[in-house]
């Protein structure tokens, strides 16, 4: 299974970024091969539609689970319609977030968060 975490950086000890569409990186963990990869989020530079761009990138990477702070309406719709489960986590180290997911300690997100405008944080 591929698990994706929205993150500030490329390393496992970097923090989860609660902004899905505007996070800098996606860290992807493959539970079958124990591989860890980090890819730049293409949505971070979008002046609008960051969530759509980010969600499509997740779909293209054949991810099954996303862990983030929240996903806006457009991102949620795309992920949900692609049968990608979304879980909520706090801004903690990515490796700790993955461990919490594997232990069944994270809450599944059942609805979209607020839409965000522009690139401001």
UniProtKB/TrEMBL annotation:
<dbReference type="InterPro" id="IPR036105">
    <property type="entry name" value="DiNase_FeMo-co_biosyn_sf"/>
</dbReference>
<protein>
    <submittedName>
        <fullName>NifB/NifX family molybdenum-iron cluster-binding protein</fullName>
    </submittedName>
</protein>
<feature type="domain" description="Dinitrogenase iron-molybdenum cofactor biosynthesis">
    <location>
        <begin position="14"/>
        <end position="102"/>
    </location>
</feature>
<dbReference type="Pfam" id="PF02579">
    <property type="entry name" value="Nitro_FeMo-Co"/>
</dbReference>
<dbReference type="InterPro" id="IPR033913">
    <property type="entry name" value="MTH1175_dom"/>
</dbReference>
<dbReference type="InterPro" id="IPR003731">
    <property type="entry name" value="Di-Nase_FeMo-co_biosynth"/>
</dbReference>
């Amino acid at each position: 299974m591929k698990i994706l975490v929205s993150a500030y950086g490329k390393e496992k000890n970097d923090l989860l970024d609660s902004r899905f569409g505007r996070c800098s990186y996606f860290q992807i963990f493959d539970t079958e091969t124990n591989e860890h990869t980090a890819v730049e989020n293409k949505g971070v530079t979008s002046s609008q539609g960051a969530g759509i761009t980010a969600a499509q990138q997740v779909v293209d990477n054949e991810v099954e689970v996303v862990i983030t702070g929240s996903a806006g309406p457009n991102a949620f719709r795309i992920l949900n319609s692609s049968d990608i489960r979304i879980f909520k986590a706090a801004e903690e180290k990515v490796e700790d977030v993955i461990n919490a997911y594997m232990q069944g300690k994270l809450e599944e997100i059942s609805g979209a968060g607020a839409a965000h405008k522009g690139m401001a944080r």
